[in-house]
Amino acid sequence: MLNIENKLERNNRMINIAIIDQQIARQGRFCLIDWLLEENLLDYADYENWRNAQIETLDDKFHLDKKSIKELLLQTDKHCKNLGLVSELQSFHCWGEKNTQLLSVTHNSGENEQLTRRWLRPQDLPQLDLFMDNSAQLAEHELLDALTERRFESAQKLLQVYAKLNSECPRLGGYQDLINYAMHISACPKLSADEIEDEWDGLNNEVTALAKEVLGALSRDYLAFAWRRLAINMAGIEFDGEKPELHISSALLQIPDYSQAIQVLNGDKALYTQPVLLLRLIQSYSKVHQYEHALINWCHLIELDSQLAESALDDCKDEQVRSLWSDFWEIKDDWSCELFPAYVFLKKPELLHLMQEFPELKNEATTAMKNLMLARLNADNEISARKNMKAINGFLLTLYLKSTN
User: Fold this and answer.
1) How many CA atoms lie within 13 A of 159 on its CB side?
2) Helices 383-392 and 394-404 sit at what angle, rounded to 10 degrees?
3) Residue 83 CB: number of other CB atoms within 10 A?
4) Rounded to the nearest 10 degrees, how much is the dihedral formed by the CA atoms of 323, 328, 329, 330?
5) Most C-beta atoms within 10 A of its C-beta, which of 117, 152, 170, 398?
6) Closest to 304 measured CA to CA, from 284, 335, 282, 285
7) Predicted confidence band of residue 234 (pLDDT cuts 50, 70, 90)
8) Mean pLDDT, range 152-165, rounded to an integer
9) Is the dihedral of CA 101, 71, 317, 297 positive or negative?
């Protein structure tokens, strides 16, 4: 498991009512497992292994300690009730037709129920009125369950039932297309090198949009199945700057499997020569809350492609990075972004202990600031390091001296 910061504790808050309200507005429901996956406090790869019955529970897979989990459960129950939401029990089964065993998130039955229950607005609960014919509604729910649980043969049969009950449903064609595609990729797990580009184009440009339109918030597990197949077939393909999407990291980010993306990218010899790959690594580190690793790679990206880095930093959603970037320009609005790494080491000297894990940064201002910070940390004489910093950039030396007061 990755050694990540606890995002909830770092922000000094647990889940709040606004987060739940936003999820309800966006997805029409709230479930803690979904939220933990979205926040990468549970790796999708671990969830995937659990749904494939390769691990028994997720007890030791959450990036939260037991105390935080208990607090999270209490806060969720409180906030959902304050919003007037109602809950319904939700079961998780193994994916696929062959093994449909019931799964448990945790050995604690009470916590299992809280982690898996689904919270809805009262008006969104299925209405099982004795005086109404709900057979079409129930049939569509079963069809959706079959698609998201990767029971595609069952989904085909359920679609036929649903079509007879609601022949005017505008989603019938979409359901059929999704079933056809899923059965195709199930039957053809292997791809030749010549097929990969067409498969990527079809999945990215057609299937993804259709799945999100027809399945909505339930599209995640359906699409992850397709992206995982593509990622497996992309393994070993060298990065091509002319076709940057045809690299395994591209598919892994779509799943999303940030842990494997980090492993793959760090093992790619082209990483520190290709800005696209480096940006993907930064994104992956940020998603799994390894902010120090992300910051160091921002510094590398600035050295590699300052124009791309500046544009990406302007759009960065990471609170720590955004704050540093904003403060950097507030101090002096006419200096170069190439000086940002030196500023980062001034503000975050704790990064120095990680530097042996990464290639050496080459910018002279960055090197001078690192040497100055190391001299301070080691209680060495700083005279030479200060002179060097002044010769390179006197303003950075002034900032350093202010930081020592």
Assistant:
1) 20
2) 140
3) 14
4) 80
5) 152
6) 282
7) very high
8) 96
9) negative
